[in-house]
Specification:
- This protein has 146 residues and is α/β, with parallel strands linked by helices.
- It has a 5-stranded parallel beta sheet with strand order 3-2-1-4-5, with helices on both faces.
- It has a single domain, classed as Rossmann fold (3-Layer(aba) Sandwich).
- 47% of the residues lie in helices and 18% in strands.
- Strand 2, helix 2 and strand 3 form a beta-alpha-beta unit.
C-alpha cells in the first residue's frame, strides 16, 4: 500500500512502492486521506472573515477532485510498469494514521510505504507526525521514505 500526501511531496515513496510491487508481483493500493475542514476560530480573530459552510464544501470538493486525479495518474503509472493498482481516496474527520492503518488491515496489506514531509520539531509538536503514529498503529511493516 502506498500512502501519498499529494503531488510534489511523495516522489521517493512512489518510486519505492512501485519498485517493490513490480519486483514482488504484488498489487498496489494507492491512497490518500483527506481530512475534512475543521474550523478553528482563535479568540483574537475579530474582523477576520471565515469561510462559510458552502465555501468550505466547495473547497473540499475541489481538493477531492484534485487528489482523485492525482491518484488516477499514479495508478496509470503503476499499470505502465506492469503493476496492478487501484486508488482509494478517504475523507475523514479522524486521524490520517488511524485511517491508513485501518485501510491496510482491511486490504490485507503486507507493507505500507509513506513519505515524510520533514516537519521540524515545533510543527511535529503542534500537528503530530502521521508517519510516527502510523508506525504505532499499523499491523504490518511501514517504510517511511524521506
Amino acid at each position: 500500500m502506498l500512502a501519498v500526501d499529494g503531488p510534489g511531496n511523495s516522489g521517493s515513496a512512489i518510486e519505492l512502492a512501485l519498485t517493490v510491487a513490480a519486483s514482488t508481483g504484488a498489487d498496489l493500493v494507492v491512497t490518500h486521506v483527506e481530512l475534512g475542514y475543521v474550523p478553528i476560530v482563535p479568540p483574537f480573530a475579530g474582523g477576520v472573515p471565515l469561510p462559510l459552510p458552502t465555501e468550505i464544501s466547495e473547497l473540499e470538493a475541489e481538493e477531492e477532485k484534485r487528489m482523485s486525479r492525482w491518484l488516477r495518474r499514479l495508478v496509470t503509472i503503476a499499470e505502465r510498469r506492469g503493476v496492478t493498482a487501484r486508488k482509494v481516496l478517504i475523507r475523514s474527520q479522524v486521524s490520517v494514521a488511524e485511517e491508513l492503518a485501518n485501510l491496510a488491515t482491511d486490504e490485507g496489506a503486507d507493507l505500507i510505504v509513506v513519505g515524510t514531509n520533514h516537519r521540524g520539531p515545533a510543527e511535529r509538536f503542534l500537528f503530530g507526525s502521521t508517519s510516527g503514529e502510523l508506525l504505532k498503529q499499523a499491523h504490518c511493516p511501514v517504510i517511511v521514505v524521506p
